[in-house]
Specification:
alpha/beta; D-Maltodextrin-Binding Protein, domain 2; 2 domains; 7-stranded mixed sheet; 9 helices; 40% helix; transcription; LysR family transcriptional regulator; DNA-binding transcription factor activity; transcription regulation
Length: 298
């Protein structure tokens, strides 16, 4: 049976792919670490790492083992925290995932208020793509997620936080950027477009595509983003035009945002949890729902 100590050693080496740096992170010397990994491989009966004089790489089995070791470490940490919570009646931890734009709104407000109400709860956050939320919740690497997805994955629940309309995002020197009035999306049919891969956020991608089809064209993307934030950054670089949720259209001197004259398409920001969330997660969802209803993006 793999010990937690062995799992921590292996995860650190796998993340660094360098025994020296891994040993420094673990605050130990390199030879005992190398021996510990070799012993682990002998114990398992297969190679976890491909080693040469110049490099270290994960084997196929090692890549699978890495994810299981991370889960093992997380479970051990959770067990310790849960036991401490049971013994003292205090503490706990939540792991949150969110799309990049949610770190501008509404997460700052939600986390501030949640910390005020639950100061003993440790919060860990990570940026995720929408399609990663379901798997993260089901394998328990995440407890709560904010994504742009309407339909929950089997075993999860989605709670709508905010329904947003799209706006056009244009480079500052674009001929249509100078006006503040509504823009007919068809005027951008011949422009260079910044787009988002469908697998990253299916609902978001499909809403963008539907808007363009309704306007009578199908854009040919030249630049590909992985988030709303990077979409806007690419527009700011002057690479092309795009459409983004209005909530994301903060003050960006090099980007002009225009409402759409026939903008009926919407996109939801949702909170995703497991189908049977614990009481702490339910409180967080209720708080986020109440705050987003009372105070929209600025």
């Amino acid at each position: 049976m793999v010990e937690i100590r062995q799992a921590r050693y292996f995860v650190t080496v796998a993340e660094e792919l360098h025994f020296g740096r891994a040993a420094q992170r673990l605050r130990m010397s390199q030879p005992p670490l190398s021996q510990a990994i070799k012993q682990l491989e002998r114990q398992l009966g297969f190679e976890l790492l491909h080693r040469t004089q110049r490099s270290v790489a994960l084997s196929t089995a090692g890549a699978v083992f890495l994810e299981r070791c991370r889960a093992l470490i997380r479970q051990a940490e959770d067990a310790e925290i849960a036991a401490r919570h049971a013994a003292t009646g205090r503490g706990g931890r939540l792991s949150l995932g969110a799309v990049a734009s949610a770190f501008s709104w509404p997460l700052p407000l939600v986390l501030e208020r949640f910390h005020e109400a639950q100061p003993d709860i440790e919060i860990r956050t990570q940026e995720i793509d929408t399609h990663e939320a379901g798997a993260g919740l089901l394998d328990r690497t995440l407890d709560w997620a904010i994504v742009r997805q309407t339909a929950p994955v089997r075993g999860t629940t989605a709670t709508s936080l905010f329904v947003d309309r799209f706006v056009a995002a244009l480079p500052a020197d674009h001929p249509a950027a100078g006006s503040a009035g509504p823009l007919d999306l068809a005027e951008l049919a011949g422009d260079t477009w910044v787009w988002l891969h469908r697998h990253i956020s299916p609902d978001y991608h499909d809403a963008m595509a539907a808007m363009c089809r309704t306007a009578g064209f199908s854009p040919v993307p030249a630049h590909w983003a992985r988030s709303v934030t990077s979409q806007i950054a690419m527009v700011e670089c002057g690479l092309g035009v795009t459409v983004v949720p209005a909530a994301a259209s903060g003050t960006r001197p090099a980007v002009g945002f225009r409402p759409l004259s026939h903008g009926t398409a919407t996109i939801e920001l949702t909170a995703m949890t497991r189908s049977e969330p614990d009481a702490l997660v339910e409180r967080l969802t209720a708080l986020a729902t109440r705050l987003t209803a009372a105070q929209g993006p600025t």
